[in-house]
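REQUEST FORM: STRUCTURE PREDICTION
Request ID: SP-0412
Submitted by: Lab K.M.
Chain count: 1
Length (residues): 441
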Amino acid sequence: MLFARPESPFAEFLITQQDGMSVGRKSVKRCSRGSYNSRRSCGDTVMVNEMLGKTILCLGAALLFSGRALALGAIVHLQGAEGDREAFFADVRMVLDRTPMDRIMGPTSVKEIDVTAVYEHAAKPEWVTLRLQFECPSELADAKNKAKSLGPNDPVRFRIGPGSYQVRRMDLKSDPMAESAWNLSSAPMLMKAGRITCNMDEFRKAIRKSLGADTAAFDHAAFGQRLSKLGLPPDLMLIGHTQSNEFLYFAWEVLWWKTVRDGKRPDPSGKWSRAATSAEKAAATQRMEELQKEAEPVLAQARASLEGNINKMQAEFDFQDRAASLRKDRKLNKLEEKLIYAWVGRTEEEVVTAMGNPRLNEAGDQRFLHYMRYFDNTAQVMELKSGATWEEGNYSECNVEFVTMRDKQSQWRVADARVWIRENALGNGKAWCDSLMNAPK
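STATUS: Completed
RESULT:
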């Protein structure tokens, strides 16, 4: 793998954040016999007592690397020459909405993602965990006020949010990092992290569509093509790690393993690289085999739980696809967009709890939960002289209909929401929709 060394003022900024108190986060160190067993045996450069104490975690990590596991972390960016390399990882399981309430309907929203930076150089932190916030085009904004999507070369607006911290290399204790002001940047790492954050729904959809039917096969070529449409590099790699200490493990054990093998990993804390003796390695190997046998029932249970979670996630993906197929390319009005955003996937029971009892109809494999609000003070007026008649007064009507379908567990869940208005010349049907725009409780 080649490492380019672009200018990195952002990394230099991170290194200068040394003040503050320790928040007491502890690193978890791991040793894996199977990571690159053909290159070196486990324990050559890692403390033996660590290898013994974390064996079950090692086995769990091996399970994460198995073909049955869904990748939930991403290698966002790699930079630097040997001896001064930097690796940036993102936890792509979740993106948080940090939009202030007074901007919720504005043209942009604020989304937050966790990014971990791991550093090779001895003068830099062991790692830095960043709560990176980005300004993204809002899904709820009116079409005329909506911000344009990020172009391939557009810079991103970002800030370092609260909760960010760095782990000092000298003693592996953590220091909180100060929040930053909003900045505009075209740094490669930030541009990639921003596009993942602002396009998280499409990013997850790309993962889902690239999975085989049994979730074991992954079409990397198709995934790369889908990433290109989001302005991301097609070779962006997904891995089965999500936590900062796991990213640290991956960087040293997979990306920079030769540095570890050669005993050149910076270790002022003395926690990582004391070489094991032959006797210690033999004892550790025997102990690991014993622990592996003891842990097998637990691993079998964990494997079953993992597969159950994968099946549950796949069922959710299937329902969302069916719901999207039901809506097809129907042009949505603004009220429908809001209801679909809030309600698709929710159960009928949740609809009734929030909206009250509906008028219910069923046809085929779909149910229709209909709600209506209206105002009518119209009257027929007749002129006695001419006999002419006309209508006077206000008629306003708003209709909301939730369409539900059964999921794989035969539970009725919302797949679509439809809104239509009827009114006369003096009416205002949209005003009567306000009382029907309820959110799930």
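NOTES: The first helix runs from residue 9 to 15.
Reviewed by: T.R.
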